[in-house]
Specification:
alpha/beta, five-stranded parallel beta sheet, Rossmann fold, binds 1,3,4-trihydroxy-5-OXO-cyclohexanecarboxylic acid
Length: about 150
């Protein structure tokens, strides 16, 4: 299995960005652990980050045929992006949405996800461990549902 892990805007600032909410680990550190976890499950994972909505849309659009599944933290675009939702709905590759924080315990504008309905599942509130949980869930989902 080959997974694409996508990270949206401002996640490149993890480590110094609002550590009281997101912790002090860098994105590179989190992704190294996620890639290693995928490998421990005999899956290959590649990760990317962009602050640019269109770049994320293009990566999702290019995933068909290249990846079996997508793990995505769309960050702020979660709450605003019809383009990302349409990309996830249309790409034909199952996705799981991840948030480091529990967005439902935060400001009301974070309570709506435009992207979640285009995903097979969502994980939030467990910090970087959410990527591991999402990979685990997605690999199980792919084993049970792919081709159905
Ligand atoms: C986030 C939650 C979003 O509301 C926020 O805009 C982010 C990070 C999270 O991982 O908790 O940038 O996606």
């Amino acid at each position: 299995m080959k997974l694409l892990i996508l990270n949206g805007p401002n996640l490149g600032l993890l480590g110094t960005r609002e550590p009281e909410i997101y912790g002090s680990e860098t994105l590179a550190g989190m992704m190294a652990r996620a890639v290693a976890f995928a490998a421990s499950r005999n899956a290959e994972a590649e990760w990317r980050q962009s602050d640019i909505e269109g770049e994320l849309v293009a990566w999702i659009g290019g995933a068909r045929g290249a990846f079996d599944g997508i793990v995505i933290n769309p960050a702020a675009y979660t709450h605003t992006s019809v383009a990302l939702r349409d990309a996830l709905s249309g790409c034909g590759v199952p996705a799981v949405e991840v948030h480091l924080s529990n967005v439902h315990r935060r400001e009301p504008f974070r309570h709506t996800s435009l992207t979640a309905a285009a995903c097979v599942g969502q994980v939030m509130g467990f910090g970087a461990d959410g990527y591991r949980l999402a990979i685990e869930g997605l690999l199980n989902w792919l084993t049970n549902n792919r081709g159905k």
